[in-house]
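Hi,

I'm pasting everything inline rather than attaching a file, because the server keeps stripping attachments. The sequence lines come first, and each chain or strand is labelled.
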Amino acid sequence: MNISKISWQNILNKKMNSFLCVLLMTLGIAIISLLVILSKQLEEKFSKNISGIDMVVGAKGSPLQLILSSIYQIDSPTGNVYLKDVQEIAQNPLVKEMIPLSMGDNYQGFRIVGTNKKYLEHFKAKPAQGQLFKMPMECVVGSLAAQNLGLKIGDTFSGSHGLDAEGEKHDHENYKIVGILEFNNSVVDNLILTDLKSVWKIHEHSEPPAAETESAEKHEHHEGEEHHEEENAELDKREITSAIIKFRSPMGMMTMPRNINQNSKLQAAVPAIEVNRMLELLGIGVDALRILAFVIMLISGISVFVSLYNSLKERKYEMALMLSMGATRTRLFLLLLLEGVILSIIGYLLGILLSRIGLLLISGQVGKKFHFDISQISFQNEEIYLFAVALLVGILAAAIPSLGIYRLNISRTLADES
Amino acid sequence: MVIESKNLTFSYNEHKKFSFPDFSCSAKETLLILGNSGKGKTTLLHLLALLQTPTGGSIRLKGEEISQLSPKNAAKMRAENIGIIYQKSHFVASLSVLDNLLLANYLADKKQSVERATELARSLGFAEHLNKKTTQLSQGEQQRVSIARALMNNPSIILADEPTSSLDDENCEKVIQLLDNQSNKIGAALIIVTHDQRLKDRFSNRVML
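And the predicted assembly:
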């Protein structure tokens, strides 16, 4: 027999009240913990993929769209640009490296990206089996794409036009898989990578008429320009979707994007700026949900308050009785306080448990597109603060009604009831 | 003499004043305080139980003046020396019968004795109910549990408030017998506050309010 046992028995004795308090606390904690972990994951994913990429150039349009499509492979590309124009930019001494990208096809929803080996080097992607592509129409597959599509080395497949699995098939040319990449927790995991030339080869035969008028327009534009060699004319018309640019020094970042945006038909976007802007926008939503969760926790506190307030009224005689049996008021105060604390600790633990169950469910749902990092399931630092907040809510909610114990008149209470 | 009072007075306000006759009670003896409603029976009981402080006069417990103790010392004195049986049996509803008995030990900072609780339960006839909740017991059983609770710390004085008023003759006799026996057993003074005329002739030490 001690006060924690009495507190616990009191909690069990009012099952429905206790259940409500715990439920509200559980929900509040679970939502906040889930938000903390998910937004952390999201930020980590986003910042990991842009590390080392200083600028992306592509067709004019939304800069965020350009970043999303070229780096994260999650939005449609802004259009095509001439490789020649991009190469001109790459001639600038401030540019350390230019990695061309050509998208537009997919295999069962997984994007086929035409690029060169520098792309793989940039993401530090190494083949787990097989080798990297050498010839046109050879390709390597990211680990998650390979896993989800069930592809092996030596398999062949034909891509479909567009970014959805329902696109028109390019069945005149087949890709051949020569390597499967190691899992490296980046965007590469969900891609099928091939040489730029493969993409050109596939589209040579099915050049859409729209592209022709576009190139005609282009000819008009360049009418005044000198044509060097006839061979190069063919190469000049080669198109890519966008290119990733790395600078030699921060100076490039200061001058080049502005210069490109003002003086060329290309668009330059700085990933760090765009991602920050996007996370800020998402942040508003996360903040709103966080406030909601704190409100739920607050309501949980109020329900502890009301429940203890009522039970103190009901148990006034019980309290007077214990006082008459030699209990000190402080001891009874602690007894009541403990009830609130126990409820909030249970709510906290269940909330953390619930958030982990939620995480597992979510990662199961989005596992295909958004690989979940299991290490994030472990206890988060923020959750320690959350514990402090839960405890504080429990203590405050219990303390206020429990202070009534110091005003209780033993004699009158006992006499009233007898 | 275990307990004696002299010139005890108490007033709730100017219009409601009580002055009580002197009395005393020694170990193993029973003192009957008789009086009708409104005569200050419960007030007197609360004064003796140190739940109220008298306006004047003295109460001596084993020779020591106890009427003007601080609330903290009064609580200690009460826990160690005084067992109280209230008119209506009240318990901590969430606890079992056994835990309600042990609670008396715990709140008095004494060793919690399951043996003592079991022994009392056996001699008061509710041993089979020890693990039940108090609300599952009949009124008579509840009263016996509250008698046992008053005896848990072997007090030197037992105060009983109207222990028989709601009982029929047969049970009245039984309860009085129990109270008398048990307080004799632990060598305590028993003070019964009642308006029940049936008890009048049983005890020679009587005070009329």
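Chain A has two domains: 3-46+278-417, 55-269.

If the labels don't parse on your end, tell me and I'll reformat.
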